Amino acid sequence: MQSATYTGLPRVHICFFTAVQNAAALRSRLIAAAGIDGTHGDVEREAVNFAFVDAASIVSHLHLRTAIYQALLAHSRGSLRTKTVHSEILFALNPSNNITEAIKRFGINDKTQALILVRVGNVDETVDGRAAGTLDDNAVFDRMKSLVQGRPINLEEGIEHATDWDMVKKIYKLPQISALRTCIQEVVVSSVAMKSVMS
Amino acid sequence: MSNSTLKLIESSKLIKQGAEAKIYVTTLHPNEPPILLKHRFSKKYRHAALDSSLTRARVAGEARAILRCLRSEVRVPGIRMVDAEEGVLGLELIDGKAVRQILPGGGDDDDGEFGVTHDEIMTLIGTEIAKMHLANVIHGDLTTSNMMLRRRPPNCHPPAEIVLIDFGLTSTSGLPEDKAVDLYVLERAFSSTHPDSEPLFQSVLNAYAAGSGKAWEAISRRLDEVRLRGRKRSMVG
Ligand SMILES: Nc1ncnc2c1ncn2[C@@H]1O[C@H](COP(=O)(O)OP(=O)(O)O)[C@@H](O)[C@H]1O
Ligand SMILES: [Mg+2]
User: Coiled coil located at which positions (chain A) (predicted)?
Assistant: First the structure.
């Protein structure tokens, strides 16, 4: 797992899981958590309080980081376009403003095998009596591991092997016969970085 | 300062102060190369609300022009972050040298480190601008400061490439007239910055002509007209 702090923004934890066995169960749990009332609901929502990103549509570490950064920026100035900073990451990844489409393309689905979990620390909230902004890195990692049945591996390496290039070309409207991967990566990263001023 | 982008700027290194923008180098992500921040600071004498919407529009315009170039495989810096509210554009940091610095009259700072001749550099410039114009991107401020020479990975041929920068005045147009004016601006920049550079600029045009195919004929005709207008204007003025 990687944890990083951005200037003036909350700490971010990222972990890549390969050979994921329980994608369908995780997805149902996510959907169910939204509908549970009371304290039990809060506990359950906190248990799944991550961005669940299907790694197939991610082209590089920088691609994911760029979406996270733009989501943190929107979060910090109170201009989220979606409900949480975690769903905002999925929104930031998608070229259109359709959140349902973003979740379908970039979120976990029943067939997900390579999964990235992202947790943004939130200074307002407390976990185990401490501000989540200072949430212990290992504690986050343990929670991720208890959630996902899969093997945590190095992020850069994981992304490199998981990318579905045909799907990426479709999502970002790149020609199917198109060029070098480095060119595709550059268009993709730059598109995500500039989404807020795209239209 | 309260917001995160301003904090980021505070922790960055100022490398250039222009009339419109301050340029910084900073690190955004762990394990990623440093980036460049272009901050269009607010002009105190302008109306505040107008100022911020103008700034936003210019950041947006520059980002869109860059993406358009990237999609056409024109070599330009990639975009790394945008905070239009603060007037900040984060770009891939190009590790190279401005063409201005390499040519005589501009700095004359060519120690052959790039392994290309001046004439080869002109060919690279002409080819890159032709690609940009084929995508109907009109740069708006072509000068030898707004293009950088960068080394390519080992065993590439040629060993260096041109990266176009500074899309602050960019527009889109398919008109030969607008492309001709873009070239004319560069021609003037060459002649005012680099003495005896006519043969060099001719090499730029040759490569541009080769790169733009059928489009060249109309652009060339327009370029002659634009030059004529320019000469008349300078005789009058
Ligand atoms: N992506 C970049 N990589 C490296 N240097 C850059 C980059 N962008 C700009 N610069 C440097 O900063 C200077 C000013 O940036 P520029 O975009 O041209 O703004 P201005 O509108 O102030 O001319 C450039 O002349 C160049 O030296
Ligand atoms: Mg400039």
Answer: none
Q: Is B228 left (phi over 0), alpha (psi -120 to 50) or beta?
A: alpha
Band of the pLDDT at B129, cuts 50, 70, 90?
Answer: very high
The per-residue b/e assignment along B78-114, b for 16 or more CB within 10 angstroms, e otherwise, is: bbbbbbbbbbbbbbbbbebbbbbbbbeebeeebeeeb
Please give the domain boundaries of chain B with CATH numbers for all domains.
4-92 (3.30.200.20), 96-229 (1.10.510.10)
Q: Is B141 a catalytic residue?
A: yes
Torsion of CA B151, B152, B154, B159, to 10 degrees: -70
C-alpha of residue B63 to centroid of ligand 1, in Å: 14
Which residue's C-alpha comes closest to atom 19 of ligand 1? B166
Predicted complex ipTM: 0.94
What is the tens place of the pLDDT at every residue in A64-115? 999 999 999 999 989 999 999 999 999 999 999 999 999 999 999 999 999 9
pTM score: 0.94
The answer to whether the CB of A117 falls within 8 A of the CB of A51 is: yes
Give the DSSP per-residue string, B133-180.
HHTTEE-S---TTSEEEEEPPTT-SSSEEEEE---TT-EE---HHHHH
The predicted-structure confidence for A144-196, as pLDDT tens digits, reads as follows 999 999 999 999 999 999 999 999 999 999 987 767 899 999 999 999 999 99
Domains of chain A: 2-198 (3.30.2380.10)
Nearest CA in chain A to B81: A193
Of A6, A69, A76, the CB nearest to B3: A76
- What is the DSSP secondary-structure string of B58-93? HHHHHHHHHHHHHHTT---PPEEEEEGGGTEEEEEP
Contact of A70 with B37, CB cutoff 8 Å? no
Better-predicted residue by pLDDT, B209 or A124:
B209
